[in-house]
Amino acid sequence: MKTENEGRAGLLYGIGAYGMWGLVPLFWPLLKPAGAIEILAHRMVWSLVFVGLALLALRRWGWIRELARSPRKLGLITLAATVITVNWGLYIWSVNTGHVVEASLGYFINPLVTIALGVLVLQERLRPAQWAAVGIGFAAVLVLAIGYGQPPWISLVLAFSFALYGLVKKKVNIGGLESLAAETAVQFLPALAYLVWLGSRGTLAFGAHGAGHTALLVATGLVTAVPLVCFGAAAIRVPLSTLGLLQYLAPTFQFLLGILYFHEAMPPERWAGFSLVWLALTILTWDALRTNRRSRAAIAAATAAGAAEARGTAETETPEAPGTAGTPGPVGTAPTAGR
Q: 312-333 pLDDT, tens per residue?
């Protein structure tokens, strides 16, 4: 019962995390007239504040000493902070300039880019279905590039930056909250300096458009931290395959918002490109589920075989029961008396 409840809670946490990430395009326009870079700077500053408070409440500080003793990890954290800065900044700009659909495409193709990076950087070997998915994804980008008259650079930069961010975080291998705290600590001083510079020029939006607008800028920290906390809670409660399926919720919500709420255009060539991406993701998901099912079956078979062998060994080595000498049962079985 406890495992079932944990699984249900993990599923709700996962839906909450990806749901919030999918609905975040509704939030960034509320921060206008602040520009994208000022919003980004506030996100960095206030994220560190909220994550720091969360770590203080949880008393999780031991990782700082370990991180400080590892120049390699510090370098990777700095790289991660740089890459996610590009991702965050471009995403905010995309939403606030009417490119929500193109931004959603970036997160649709992100799994395909992650696989490609695995081949190029980690020398991973792909299964045929994965090769097919990557090939179809490449064809989708070509279709969209021809339709746009240029490569869908917003989608590509978002996809590659987030995939690279995931690769770097995998190598750092620290918890979600801890990682975000370290990354925003790297971002904090440049972001704060930029906000001070805007204030010195009299162009800082913070505090200039009422208490409500100021509160919304402060809330950028919560908008960043809360989904991450939910994601962390889901990751330890549900299988990775479930998280892999849930990740498509965010770009799906973004895509629907772009069409239905922001009324962005969807010409035929864009539909064609998106359809190819969705086909690639369907193949990728089917392959992942099939592989996961086969792995579980192989593990279960190996476990059952091991248990059967152990039982057979135990029965073979069981001594005769008292009073049954001279009337042994068949070879390899325990005596029947006393059963």
A: 666 665 555 444 444 333 333 3
Cβ atoms of 129 and 283 closer than 8 Å: yes
CA atoms within 13 A on the CB side of 49: 16
Distance CA 339, CA 331 (A): 17
By C-alpha distance, which of 165, 171, 159 is closest to 90? Answer: 159
How many of the other CB atoms lie within 10 Å of CB of 59? 7
The Cα angle at residue 149 between residues 147 and 154, in degrees rounded to 5: 90
47/329 Cα distance (integer angstroms): 72
What integer pLDDT is reported at residue 293 of this predicted model? Answer: 80
**Average pLDDT of the residues in 145-151:** 84
Is the predicted pLDDT of residue 337 greater than 90, yes or no?
A: no
The pTM of this model reads 0.82
Helices 220-235 and 176-201 pack at an angle, to 10 degrees, of: 170
**d(Cα 26, Cα 108) in Å, to the nearest integer?**
19
Nearest to 198 by CA among 210, 208, 188, 213: 208
**CA nearest to 113, candidates 165, 177, 171, 173:** 165
Q: Which residues contact 94 (CB under 8 A, 6 or more apart)?
A: 100, 102, 103, 154, 158
> Which of 5, 1, 69, 72 has its CA nearest to residue 238?
5
Our CA angle for 257, 260, 264, nearest 5°, is 85
